[in-house]
């Protein structure tokens, strides 16, 4: 595989968590976070005229392309005081976020954002661009998250992570509020990206984190000393109850993980054969006391 060069163009896919219920508990409001993200996006576009950008919004109901948006939408008014490319991106991203927030205010109970679906959309777009481009494009994904992990999305999320690793796509994570995300930590560690916990006590901390850590491309990161992830929780989630476990059982066919034994794999429908065998201690006890009940151990083939 070729090494990144300074003149290579980049493709940045930004995944914005726009779940209003998750941002309601954060000291940093969603409006200010989006404004700081827009400044970061403008800085990224200013680095190289050939840089490409995609912004995806993820709520608990849907995932939507914020930029580039529907070509049939009304173009923003012209402003001679703002650079044209910046103005188009700013208007479409901010208006798209406002539209998604307005559509999800329905009084429903809190649900987790569809981050795994947004990552799948991002990887599909990166694949299309890579296949249609003549020159090499180095792609990366930036996720701005404010919610918690959803155990039900563990399988599609891990599939996206391993797909990004195979495609050499970095995944950077900016966690704004709440406990550390176990799944997103693994995403950053496996793909070679950065996992950053933003200090929300300062309103400008998000922009500072984005500028100094997430703005450099693959070439620049090779000569920088990026912050490392010291404590990464690599525990898996069981496929049966969607719980994070320390010890579990693995299907020998599809490698699905379960917290307890089962006669049939719920993922690939493989039937396991069980055989009851007597332990050594029970066999020796049977010789001395034939009438006593024997202890048995379960062996899975």
Overview of the structural elements:
The protein is α/β, with parallel strands linked by helices. A six-stranded mixed β-sheet has the order 3-2-1-4-5-6, sandwiched between helices. Helix 2 packs antiparallel against helix 3, helix 2 runs parallel beside helix 7 and helix 4 runs parallel beside helix 5. The radius of gyration is 24 Å and the shape is globular. The two termini are 41 Å apart.
Give me a quick take on this structure:
With 301 residues, this protein is of the alpha/beta class.
Uncertain regions spanning at least 5 consecutive residues: 291-301
The order of strands across the largest sheet is 3-2-1-4-5-6
The total count of helices amounts to 9
Q: State Rg.
A: 24 Å
Beta-strand level of the residues, as a percent range? 15-25%
Mean pLDDT: 81
* Distance from first to last alpha carbon: 41 Å
Biggest beta-sheet profile: 6 strands, mixed
**How many strands?**
12
Helix content: 25-40%
Element-level helix/strand string: EHHEEHHEHEHEHHEEEEEHE
Structural class: alpha/beta
Topology:
Elements: E1 9-17, H1 20-23, H2 30-47, E2 52-58, E3 63-67, H3 84-104, H4 115-132, E4 137-145, H5 154-166, E5 170-175, H6 182-191, E6 195-197, H7 205-214, H8 218-221, E7 236-237, E8 244-245, E9 249-250, E10 257-258, E11 274-278, H9 280-288, E12 296-300
Parallel strand pairs: 1-2, 1-4, 4-5, 5-6
Antiparallel strand pairs: 2-3, 7-8, 9-10, 11-12
């Amino acid at each position: 595989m070729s090494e990144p060069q300074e003149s290579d163009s980049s493709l940045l896919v930004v995944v914005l968590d726009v779940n209003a219920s998750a941002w309601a508990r954060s000291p940093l409001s969603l409006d200010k976070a989006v404004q700081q993200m827009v400044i970061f996006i403008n800085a990224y576009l200013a680095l190289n005229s050939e840089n490409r950008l995609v912004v995806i919004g993820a709520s608990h109901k849907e995932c939507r392309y914020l930029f580039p948006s529907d070509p049939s939408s009304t173009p923003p008014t012209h402003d001679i005081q703002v650079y044209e490319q910046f103005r188009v991106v700013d208007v479409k991203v901010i208006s798209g976020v406002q539209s998604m927030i307005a559509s999800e205010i329905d009084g429903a109970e809190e649900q987790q954002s569809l981050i795994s679906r947004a990552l799948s959309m991002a990887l599909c777009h990166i694949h299309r661009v890579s296949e249609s481009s003549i020159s090499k494009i180095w792609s990366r994904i930036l996720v701005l998250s404010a919610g918690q992990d959803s155990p039900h999305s563990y399988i599609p999320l891990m599939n996206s992570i391993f797909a990004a690793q195979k495609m050499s796509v970095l995944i950077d994570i900016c966690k704004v509020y709440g406990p550390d995300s176990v799944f997103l930590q693994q995403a950053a560690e496996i793909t070679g990206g950065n996992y950053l916990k933003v200090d929300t006590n300062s309103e400008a901390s998000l922009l500072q984190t984005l500028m100094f850590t997430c703005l450099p491309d693959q070439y620049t990161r090779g000569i920088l000393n990026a912050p490392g992830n010291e404590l990464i929780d690599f525990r898996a989630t069981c496929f049966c109850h969607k719980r994070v476990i320390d010890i579990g059982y693995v299907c020998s066919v599809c490698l699905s993980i379960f917290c307890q034994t089962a006669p049939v794999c719920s993922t690939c429908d493989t039937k396991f054969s069980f055989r009851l065998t007597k332990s050594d201690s029970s066999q020796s006890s049977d010789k001395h006391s034939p009438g006593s009940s024997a202890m048995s151990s379960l062996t899975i083939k």
